[in-house]
Amino acid sequence: MIEIKFFPIDIDYIEREEGIIIRIFGKTITGEKICVLDKSFKPNFLVIPEDNTNLSELLNQIKKISFEFDEKIIQVLDAELTKKKYLGKKVNAIKVFVRFTKEIKLIREYLKAIKEIKSIEEYDISSYKKYLIENKITPLSLCKVNGNIINTSLDVDIYVKGKVSQETDDILENPKVLSFDIETSNPASSVQGDNQPPIIMIGLAGSDGFRKCITWKEFKTSKKEIEFVSSEVKLLKEFKNIIKSYKPDYIVGYYSDGFDWPYIKARADFLKIDLDIGLDKKVIKFKRRAGNTSSVKINGIPHIDIWKFIKQIMSGDVASGSLQTQSYSLDSVAEEILGENKISLDILDLSDAWENNKGLEKFCLYNLKDAELCLRIFEKITPNINELVKIVSQPIYDVSKMTYGQLIENYLMKKTVDFNEIILKKPSFGERKARRYNTYTGGFVFEPKPGLYENLAVLDFRGLHPSIISAHNICLSTITDDKENSNESPEIDGIKFHFSYKEEGFIPQIVKELIERRIRIKEIIKKNESPVLKARSYALKIIAAGFHGYTGYFGARWYSIECSAAILAYARFYIKKLISKVEEFGFTVIYGDTDSVFIEIGNKNKDDILKFLKDFNNELPSLMELELESFYERGIFVGKKSAKTGAKKKYALINENKEIKIRGFEIVRRGWSNISKNIQRKVFEFILKENNVQKALDYVRKEVNEIKNKKLNMEDMVIRTQLNKNINDYESIGPHVAVAKQMLKKNIKVGPGSIIQYIVTKGTGLIRDRAKLVEDATDYDADYYINHQILPSIQTIFEVLGYKKEDLLEDEDQSKLKSFVKNG
DNA sequence: ACGCCCTGCTTACC
DNA sequence: ACTGGTAAGCAGGGCGT
Q1: Is the pLDDT of residue A373 over 60?
Q2: CB of A752 nearer than 7 A to strand C
Q3: Residues A539, A579: one domain?
Q4: A552/B6 CA-to-C1' distance in Å
Q5: Span CA (A729) to C1' (C13), Å
Q6: How far apart are the C-alpha atoms of A174 and A390, rounded to whole Å?
Q7: Distance (Å) from CA A669 to C1' B14?
Q8: Residues A239 and A332 occupy one common structural domain
Q9: Nearest protein residue to C13's C1' (by CA)?
């Protein structure tokens, strides 16, 4: 017997005659590759007997189950009596062990005939997941195995059979990462199958500084990183060799699940090459996932498509620390995260360059740079992925692909062990369908009165929804008909829900713990900021913030529309209470959305705001807290374009450091040309920074004339819209769909997710008939850009200041006269 | 052909 | 198909005149 300390990296199971065996690939503390077989785990599920059942009789009956199916003997290995909690209620349960995961389904069918059985639980959880949960093992965190070394033909240094247990929460430092990127001979081609253009370059970047671009047309170069092989077959074989000899802990790519791997697979199939790069020498597998995407699994080496993680978890509007980019291209993500860009060249020129073997070197460097950027983005977001791995305790391969809902669900599943709770079932197809029709009312949005305001304060509730869950004990396990001893929710369509306060619920306890941990971490960050702590705070935040959405999600195991509805009802209650208290105090509320109020300080001062904050917080339940978001010098709220009322979710503010904060306006929306965004930005600057409306007006008139008279940069005229469906599924053919059709005709690949770029050109008819691909557009329609891009983006702003649309178009002489009259 | 209203669709905010 | 609801606003679709 020996003991070896290691970090688990990838987990699956293998099948032997005697049953499944959990297999863990990892790295020892001395840096060796290790594979551990843990036989201690047996696939299992729970049987819940009807009340008043003779338990030992039922137990014996279950233990004896053995039948034949498909010429194989299916049998129960063992069963034991146990006590569990089902949503807080104590229940008797029989834990049933079998040899193979796939036997569970058959035995479950068999058990359905036994009338003493009330229900069967925990049968729909994959074995490695259950293994990690039951044994409280967190991947990437230090574990130990006690066992015996055995011989192996696997690509590892040590092969051990034994029992694994968690040691500490020290995480794997400096993993060896290999990033890759491919180029094909015709980057624009959408051809699939045997005629698919060949792969001509593979760029590789390793975390220890390793750099290589392999290609198969020789040319003169001094770059040592460029390696020549003689054919595409040799290229793919060399790619495999490098992976084998480099021995990366992870393989990362950018959109590699969506493009690089499927492409490599297609070419490898065509060229009859096995992609047997798993540490067990098995070929890579394509796991079907939601939609028409799949993800690539390499046994023993997590493959991480960072595009997926960035898009799903790091994207946009969730946290201040996260990405603001509107496009998930490698270039814009690299710019945002690293402050660095791709090598600038037109990749469409590659097909000519390849054909004529002319100027290929720069494409190789471009290819290599892409791989390098991908690697460095991965290194930058590693703390974020690691923190989520630590929280949900699932393999990095899985966590890097999880959506919010899955992160929360996996976290809840992990926490069941501490509470002895039964893991609830996934809803059936029918249930999901039925649940989808259930909706509930969301947050309250206060309609602003359009205007330019001075001296504002913005207050918001810290983590409103999680703090409500905790403060009012909202949970599937506490919801009750008992009106005594319970919290009563505000009325929802005439109904009030009740949540017992006798015992703290499963979810409220978990949420409370998350909130408290985050408060502690934020305290530490104040004194000592670090990327790891920031990532931890972010991870705790997104998990805590996701619960109310999760319980209202039709696919959730812990689904409860009542809980979600109640959380939101409380949220409306608190924000409305806040608004009325603010007004009682003598302030004017300008705006508010869900958990915030925008206050005009007016003839009072900042200290009054702080006093109000203190008073209000004194009356809030524990863990609920109203915070000062910031003071602002000036702010503008506009009216809707189609009606006289104030527009919600749109405002522009400037704080005391002259920083402008813009929400909802065209500037922050994709789908608007740069020309209109740039003009709008300038207008806000003149109005908010300089408080000079006349300057803004003059600027707009000048710009409008330039658009009319000059040929401005075509790049500024480009409109970008995302395609979200297959082209043929559109009922309504908008400009971007029409342009996507043009692209398909030219054999340029487009599909759901593609960002379609176009310019509206002169001509007659519908806009879609005049929308052209950027490369095909030789002019732009000035009228369109003035009336459909510029004016709409600034009109409502100027209306607030007393100007009409016509005022914006007048030439300068008239306008001076008019403003003279106006001011006089 | 034009104006009107409705709907499909995209993209924001929290 | 993968957390939820709330909201603005464009362009096309379809209708009547």
Answers
A1: yes
A2: no
A3: yes
A4: 30
A5: 16
A6: 16
A7: 16
A8: yes
A9: A732
Are the CB atoms for A154 and A35 separated by under 8 Å? yes
Q: Residues A738, A740, A742, A744: what is their CA dihedral angle, to the nearest 10 degrees?
A: -140
Phi-psi domain of A451 (left: phi exceeds 0; alpha: psi -120 through 50; beta: other): left
Token readout for A598 is 């925008």
Q: Residue A40: what residue type?
A: S
- Nucleotide with smallest C1' distance to residue A461 CA: B14
Residue A515, domain CATH:
3.90.1600.10
One domain for residues A777 and A681: yes
Nucleic strand C contacts from chain A, 413-442, CB < 7 Å: 429, 432, 439-442
Q: Can you give the distance from the CA of residue A617 to the C1' of nucleotide C5 in angstroms?
A: 27
Which positions of strand C lie within 7 Å of protein CB atoms? 1-13
**Which chain A residues in 361-420 sit with Cβ < 7 A of strand C?**
403-406
CATH of the domain at A87: 3.30.342.10
Tens-place pLDDT, residues A573-620 = 999 999 999 999 999 999 999 999 999 999 999 999 999 999 999 999
Tell me whether residue A530 is in a domain.
yes
pLDDT digits (tens, 9 = 90+) for A386-421: 999 999 999 999 999 999 999 999 999 999 999 999
- Confidence band (pLDDT; 50, 70, 90) for A321? very low
Domain finish residue from A111, A136, A171: A171
Query: Are A391 and A300 a contacting pair, CB within 8 Å?
Result: no
Distance A756 CA to B10 C1' (A): 12
Residues 6 or more apart from A291 whose CB is under 8 A from it?
Answer: A752
Supply the DSSP symbol for A715. G
At A809, the pLDDT band (50, 70, 90 cuts) reads: confident
Nearest nucleotide (CA of A318 to C1') = B14
